[in-house]
Specification:
Elements (H helix, E strand, L loop, with lengths): L2 H7 L7 H9 L13 H9 L7 E7 L4 H6 L5 H4 L4 E6 L6 H10 L3 H4 L14 H7 L4 E6 L3 H4 L7 E5 L2 H14 L4 E6 L1 H8 L5 H24 L5 E5 L6 E2 L6 E2 L5 H4 E9 L3
Parallel strand pairs: 1-5, 1-6, 3-4, 3-5
Antiparallel strand pairs: 2-9, 6-9, 7-8
The structure holds zinc ion.
Length: 274
């Protein structure tokens, strides 16, 4: 086993997102959640003396793999500015959107939460959203209409915003940050994934979509800094999986247990309120 492979197989899993955010927000994690939070993130908060995070924004761009960071490094400077804690992570099997988001937001492996294949059923098990609601937090999910993020966490006391496209998601998210009516917001974008399936994950149009994702993230971070200035807050750039080229079609795809699909990176930014 090469050093690289050895290192990669030790990556923490995206299930760690739920216990990490629960730890920061000081709420009891959902029932099925893994207990292992990301040390690096929690230690940074401890070091900075920030506790009891009141506000959280999770920006979830579909299909942005770790390889994009490695190959288009300079684009990510704009992500690292508001969210400098970069944590390489391993996705879940199969690395497809509904399964990944189910794991990210339950803190559990697919065989535990039960969503293990294509399809967008409403998850009935306990999720971070249920845990947040129990703790009295106000939750919003802003997604492109009928995408997994829009559908699988339905039937909860969450405000669901189903938008026409990525741009509308960004506008809506900015509006609701400004409203100060929510404590935990997920904003989901899918254009990059759409393009990679039509072409490849690194074609010119895909890179433009990735740049749009990154610009949107920066805009959301800036809005938080103004309108949530007084709150202890965390922002996360949190993709679900990566992608590879299907040798038969020559187009982008994902769903295999291979590094291109499985390795991602999440970026955390934490700030204390004034
Ligand atoms: Zn996809």
């Amino acid at each position: 086993m090469s050093d690289q492979t050895k290192k990669d197989t030790n990556l923490p899993c995206i299930t760690a997102i739920t216990p990490t955010l629960c730890k920061l927000m000081e709420i009891a994690p959902p029932a099925l959640s893994d207990q292992h939070f990301l040390d690096e993130v929690v230690q940074t908060a401890n070091r900075d003396g920030i506790t009891n995070f009141e506000k959280c924004l999770v920006y979830a761009p579909d299909a942005v793999g770790l390889q994009m960071y490695k190959n288009f490094r300079s684009l990510f400077d704009t992500v690292l500015k508001p969210a400098p804690i970069a944590v390489p992570l391993c996705s879940v099997i199969p690395p497809i959107t509904p399964v990944c988001f189910a794991s990210m937001f339950t803190g559990a492996q697919p065989r535990v939460h039960g969503l293990q294949k294509k399809g967008k059923p409403v998850l009935t098990c306990d999720t971070i959203f249920d845990a947040l609601i129990r703790a009295g937090k106000r939750v919003a999910i802003v997604s492109v209409k009928e995408q997994s993020m829009d559908l699988i966490f339905r039937k909860r006391k969450i405000q669901y915003f189903s938008e026409f496209d990525d741009q509308a998601v960004t506008h809506r998210t900015i509006e609701i940050i400004k409203s100060n009516n929510y404590d935990f917001i997920v904003a989901y974008h899918c254009e990059y994934d759409d393009i990679l399936h039509e072409k490849t994950h690194y074609c010119t149009e895909a890179i433009q979509a990735l740049s749009n994702d990154i610009a949107a993230f920066a805009q959301l971070a800036d809005t938080m800094d103004v309108f949530w200035q007084r709150n202890n807050r965390v922002i996360v750039f949190a993709p679900d999986h990566g992608a590879h080229i299907d040798p038969e079609s020559g187009k982008g795809t994902h769903g295999n247990n291979i590094p291109q699909d499985m390795h991602i990176q999440h970026y955390f930014g934490i700030k204390g309120g004034t």
